[in-house]
Amino acid sequence: MPERKGLDDYFMYRYPPDYQLEPFLRTPSPISSSSRIVPKNPAEIDESPKKTVAEIFKATVWAKLEQSKKSESQGPDADQSDKVAASKLSDLKGKALEERKMKDLLEENMARERKIAELQRENEELANKIRELNERLEERLEERVKGILEEVARKEQIVLEDGQRWVQKNLTVNIRENAVREKDALQEAKSTTLLQREDKVREREENVLRREKQVLEQEEKMAQLQKQLNGKASKLVKTERLVERFFKEIKLTMPKEEDLEPEL
């Protein structure tokens, strides 16, 4: 049973645990497992041909059986040497297992470092994309605000020009009407009594007052329209300031490239 347990432990590893015994296997040894050639580097072992592995296993089993028979025939001295050799082999197996664990840990560490480098690269790419998008958005918003301000200024200029033309036109009409009425009043005054002339003058004054009232109403409408335009311009200025503050806050809250690198 101990022999079979040793064989099972021997063949349960991916790489032979006795590859470090090569210097000892060059000399005759009572526990020589087989005459197989063990490479210095476990990575050089070719695990693909199953037939070779089966032959090695078969040769090792036969060698173990022959060694067991020789040990029984040689007596206590052979058993003692077998125990010493088995102890050394166990120690070497433990060292090989520890080396294998260290190799696995190194591979995991390298894979982790590669993953960290990949994440850092992705973070840099994402930061660059975010910066490009912010720059494009800022340019578009600036163009949009500029276009809105230009459109408002153009409409405001049109309204002001229309108002000035309307006021000038109405004033001209009023002046002409007043001139005609005054002329008619003078002509009628010559042919009418003083009372009629006073009535005409009073009527003319009422018309003038009414026209002045209309002009005042129109001026009040123009003032209200100017006030509305000023309010819209003020809102646009506030909107522009909010947009600028928004981009400043975005730039301040964006993580720097040094902050994107995770601590190793």
Please summarize the sheet with the most strands. none
Q: Judging from the principal axes of the Cα atoms, what is the shape?
A: rod-shaped
Number of domains: 2
Secondary structure tally, helices:
6
Structural class: mainly alpha
List SSEs in N-to-C order: HHHHHH
> What percentage of the residues does DSSP assign to strands (E)?
under 5%
Number of strands: 0
Describe this protein's structure.
This protein is mainly alpha-helical and 264 residues long. It folds into 2 domains: 73 residues, no CATH class; 123 residues. The chain contains 6 helices and no strands. Helix 3 packs antiparallel against helix 4. The longest helix has 116 residues. Keywords: Coiled coil.
For this entry, give a set of tags.
264 residues, mainly alpha, 2 domains, 6 helices, 83% helix, 0% strand, rod-shaped, disordered N terminus
Tell me the layout of helices and strands.
Blueprint: H1 2-10, H2 22-25, H3 50-74, H4 76-191, H5 194-253, H6 257-260
Give a brief outline of the structure:
By secondary structure, the chain is mainly alpha-helical. It has 6 helices and no strands.
